[in-house]
Specification:
By secondary structure, the chain is of the alpha/beta class. The protein has nine helices and seven strands. A hairpin with a 4-residue loop joins strand 5 and strand 6. Bound molecules: BIS(adenosine)-5'-pentaphosphate.
Length: about 210
């Protein structure tokens, strides 16, 4: 099963992807997480991507497409995967389509998480992340078992650098202008389903499970 989660920054894509990983035992492929790992390791790609990410801008399409071609060719993708944060532009969607043809695969479902901008800005201020694993928490809506530390490792949770309100606003603008039009791109393929992302995390998960099963 190949699922694409599409939605605004902070819309809950990562949170839902992690629940789907547990349920279906297929990998979450988050371009944001992969890029953050490159930035941390100071690879060539990481050095190129760092400034774009900190400013809430998109990393250039050619870098993303090269990175994703390598990722989707890995063995763990053979049973399916959950795309989280990719594609985000029309050239990326077109690049993905070409890649899927090469791999003899196709997307089964595109799930659009709908959340209002004002709720996103509120949510982002409370997000805490475990950088190593990409596990995501919220101080109010999805708190860790012990304040400030990851449930599994007990390591410290941090606030992402691009979660400052002015950066979130820029990311939202880019989402509306560049990423949201992809919904129409996939509508023509008849694989789009909408989910109300303002509901509780578990309710959204249940709805997505209904859609994909
Ligand atoms: P990326 O990491 O992909 O960021 P994003 O798409 O902006 O999405 P987020 O990770 O911020 O949010 P999310 O939708 O996963 O929400 P989450 O589950 O965490 O990308 C970061 C940067 O990398 C980009 O800005 C860009 O520079 C670059 N990049 C990445 N991919 C790229 C690409 N393809 N092309 C070019 N550049 C790229 O939830 C948010 C918070 O809300 C959490 O605290 C969570 O606990 C809480 N929450 C979740 N669901 C609910 C709910 N239902 N109710 C209440 N709270 C909830």
């Amino acid at each position: 099963m190949k699922i694409l989660l599409l939605g605004p920054p902070g819309g809950g894509k990562g949170t839902q992807a992690k629940l789907l990983v547990k349920k279906f035992n297929i990998p979450q492929i988050s371009t944001g997480d992969i890029l953050r790992e490159h930035v941390k390791k100071e690879t060539n790609l990481g050095l190129k991507a760092k400034e774009f990410m900190q400013n809430g801008e998109l990393v250039p399409d050619n870098l993303i497409l090269n990175m994703m071609e390598k990722r989707l060719k890995k063995n763990d993708c053979s049973r399916g995967y959950i795309l989280d944060g990719f594609p985000r532009t029309t050239p990326q969607a077109e690049g993905l389509e070409k890649l899927l043809i090469k791999l003899n695969q196709n997307l089964d479902k595109v799930i659009v998480l709908e959340v209002d901008d004002k709720d996103i800005i509120n949510r982002m201020s409370g997000r805490r992340v475990h950088m190593e694993s990409g596990r995501v928490y919220h101080v109010k809506f999805n708190p860790p078992k012990n304040e400030g530390v990851d449930d599994l490792t007990n390591e410290k949770l941090v606030i992402r650098k691009d979660d400052r309100p002015e950066t979130v606003e820029r990311r939202l603008k880019i989402y509306h202008k560049t990423t949201k039009p992809l919904i129409d791109y996939y509508k023509s393929k008849n694989i789009v389903s909408y989910v109300n992302g303002n509901n509780k995390i578990e309710e959204i998960h249940k709805r997505i499970r209904e859609i994909v099963s």
